[in-house]
Amino acid sequence: QVQLVQSGGGLVQAGGSLRLSCAASGRTVSRQTMGWFRQAPGKEHEFVAAINWSGSSTYYADSGKGRFTISRDNAENTVYMQMNSLKPEDTAVYYCAARYDFGDRRYVLPNEYPFWGQGTQVTVSS
């Protein structure tokens, strides 16, 4: 089992920045692909970004390219997502997610991740 505890988020004006953190615990946390998803009211979970187990590969949805940066610190068992130039349409509950993987395959669907954090609200005002 893997437990994910999120922190960060909050209210920010458009153009501002936030950093989300996701601390993982459990077995072999370093051998996992970690992803971030978001869910706006009335919408499905949307893929935002992911990073492979070593941190050597990152990939993003078009909505966050150039503005969001995902990173990880395996020594601290923590994944981060730095979000810059935030827009009102970025408003959502953000979730980190994890799955065991020791390769470089890309995972962008919610059902590919069995472990989830509790979610954190990000609100961007115009």
What does this molecule look like?
The protein has no helices and 11 strands. The protein is an all-beta fold and 126 residues long. Strands 2, 4, 5, 6, 9, 10 and 11 form a 7-stranded mixed β-sheet that branches. It has a 4-stranded antiparallel β-sheet with strand order 1-3-8-7, with no helix packed on it. A hairpin with a 6-residue loop joins strand 4 and strand 5. The chain is globular. It starts with a strand and ends with a strand. 31% of the residues are buried. The model has no long low-confidence stretch (mean pLDDT 94).
Question: What's the short story on this structure?
Answer:
By secondary structure, this protein is mostly beta strands. It contains no helices and eleven strands. Strand 4 and strand 5 form a beta hairpin.
Low-pLDDT sequence parts: none
**What amount of the residues lies in strands?**
over 45%
Summed over residues and divided by their number, the pLDDT gives a mean of 94
Number of helices: 0
CA radius of gyration: 13 Å
Question: Which series of helices and strands comes N to C?
Answer: EEEEEEEEEEE
Fraction of helical residues: under 10%
The tally of strands reads 11
- Report how far the terminal alpha carbons are from each other: 40 Å
Largest sheet: 7 strands, mixed
Overall body shape: globular
